[in-house]
Amino acid sequence: MNNKKTILSASVLFFLGVFTYGQEKDSIKTNKDTIKTNNVEEVVVLGSRAGARSKVDSPVPVDVFNVKESSIILPQTNIGQILNAVAPSFTSTIQTNSDGTDHLDPAQLRGLGPDQVLVLVNGKRRHTSALVNVNGTPGRGTVGTDLNAIPSFALNRIEVLRDGASAQYGSDAIAGVINLDLKRDTGKLAGQISYGGNLTPTANDHTGDFDGQNIQLDLNYGNKIGTKGGFFNITWSSQFRNPTYRAGTESGKIYNAYNAIEQRALNDGVNLSSLFTNINNTPNSQQIINYVHQYAQGVNYFSATQLSDIQNTNTFKDITDASGNVLQKGLWSLLSADVTDQELAYRGQARKDFNMQVGQSKLNNHQFFLNAEIPVSDNWKVYTFGGYSIRHGTSGGFYRRPRENRTFTGLYPNGYLPQIGTDIQDISLAAGIKGKWDGWNIDFSNTYGQNSFTYNIQNTGNTSLRFASPTEFNAGGLRFTQNTINLDLSKKYDVWEGINIAFGAEHRYENFKITQGEEASYATYDASGNVWNGNSVRPTDFFGAELPGGSQVFNGFKPGNAVDKNRQSVAAYADVEFNFTNWLLVDAAARYENYSDFGSTFNYKLASRIKVAPNFNVRFAGSTGFRAPSIHQIYYNVTSTLFTNNQLLEVGTFSNDSQLAGLLDMPKLKQETSKSASVGFTYKIPSANLTFTADGYFTRIDNRIILTDQFLRKDVPADAQKEYDKLNVNGAQFFTNAIDTETKGLDVVISHNARFSGFKLDNNFAINLNKTKQVGDIHSAGLLQSPQLEKVYFSEKSRVYLEEAVPRVKASLSHTLSWKSATFYLRNTYFGKVTGADIIDVNGDGIIDFNEHQPIGDKIITDLSAAYQFTKNVGLTLGVNNLFDIYPTKNLTASTNNDQFIYSRSTSQFGQNGRYVFARLNFNF
Hints:
Helix content: 10-25%
Largest sheet: 22 strands, antiparallel, barrel
Number of strands: 39
Mean pLDDT: 91
Low-confidence stretches: 1-41
């Protein structure tokens, strides 16, 4: 900790000291740098349709990160983690044990949702992911954009507009816009080979050493097409990432006495599970009891009393008198005793053998991207860009222990760890023509994108199939397709200091598809091996508990869940930028959109920049915005069939257009609407190469869409119970416009650079402070409108995910020093405190309050790296992410799930992988 404070203090002093020295910069001549490392450029194009301008002259805050140049020195290699490190207003963390979300990190801007930030590529709308985040992580119930489907090595720079922009860019741009600008390099082959891993005492389930090994190859090649500025640029990236293991030591019950006897029988060639299918309905019960008597004698740690009780019992159930008093215990009672430690010793096992895989998932990722332009005349050019990626991930579920009825010990006497395999395929292609005609800039384009998730569940079983169960299942999948046609026109007029008029139109088509899995992935089978009809006899374990159906860890999508739905939208916008004088800029924008499934919306924006002094600007903006309900949120559904109270009952997520939603008078999803305002200033000190920007902001979102908790039949009003009974439903959750929120925040960015004695130094400080809270009443509706149900609409856990699971304060201070062929990089990132979502007894008073959560403390993460260019073609980078091996606050015992989750899996700070060391070979020819 002292080392960490020393480096942080030195970092601050370095920043301030060089500020003074840098004022003499104008008299110092410097040589051309071998490696450029500025990560904030001055010129921006995002947020305006009038062309490029200095970022300090923009009426709205825009950050620009030069990924092409900083990729040499940064420890991070994918877009989400790069932005999480360098942009304090951006948050994205690798998730664990959250199904498909393990392979797609939810990304948030200014504390708002993953679906409230719009992503563009080369200025064109990027399609979102097919995945709906339905698990217990920040962003629950949202649909974000898969940033990891695009290789960071294909990027020139990333622009982040930190302001509401729906009036300019359409749906989703409530928090802001991220634009990924692709490389246009020609005439060279560039590449890098990276190898790294986590060198930390907590690796391999806290036994130490090294895990999470990552190998990545990036290649980029570009060349000219013709002699008039045409080009193509292609990128290939392959990543092979091993999992990390951060579980503690399984502390729960693993084996019972029956498991011990069963193992002794297996050692003698007798599989007790083969002697019965339903223990309550088997003609050879005495044979089974005899085998239990026989093989119990082989368990040498049974006490004499325990063994005598077993030998003297010839029934499964307890023998009771008329009053229910136990006269003699049956085998079910006697053999349920915990014998974990003794049996582990007998089998030569350790408790860690039963750990979950907690940490980052295993991942193989291959990506291709293209960017090209070809002039067709002096004024017109055609262009295309797009890519293909295939990502295969494997993550672990909860361990199926031998003592549980969901584990068929006839096949798995030691239990098993099921795995969720996810194949994520992403396709995108944009093509268009742009040019000038009679002073007008015209751009006509078509952008296609598709993202799909296919679930292959491995090392698992359908327990109800017993010996006939496969070990791998196709559980179905999700697919989202989007096609967008745009026509954009703009023209500048020499009126006042210049007027730019822009307008355009957009048509967008969307499709969401759920594909059913194979039958065994979702079905429950009876004792005869047929799909259970609700009346036939089901198989049980030795203790009489019915064996569950479906693939363990992830049930497949059923035929009733399968959907194939479309929608369309059309939009028109106008944007006028007035430069009344050289000190007053005003930008006004308006946009109308109409959706085929919920109707229309009209939004506007007004922004201005006033140049108070040559180097001092004041800027402010106000806007309305919206986010259309994603087509996923309208039609996503996944249900399970359970046998409750002698009935087959459905539980799960029901779609907004389902029969149940209609019977309950649940309102159709409509757009979220927002009102945003921001005010700030920019200030430059040219003699010191120092720039300050500060922007305060406020965003009010009405009718925010959330995923509710389960409305159980027993808790809903009587009229709703009648509708549940009509459809045999026991529990249901829905997507609904249930809450309003307010977000307040402040962004401060300070940038400095200096040149002295052949050295080049860049210093950047940025901080984001934000607070989101739910305001007003819960929008309960229909037959579920009840004060008692408001905590089901918007539960306490959901409140934490929304308000407290993401840092309210995040700051970074970075320095890049270059001298001749060497470059050194140091960054400290402060992650503010967050709150765990679990409701537990934090203060140990024996009382669990409804809002009692564990606080998770603030931390500082230090990154350090050094690069050396041996020749103009070959260089080497060595570095460390999280130099001091900092971890989040440890969970209290109640949240660890038997010491498996040592750190919270429901918050978003900086992950739980610890120190990462890497080496990177850079080359270009």
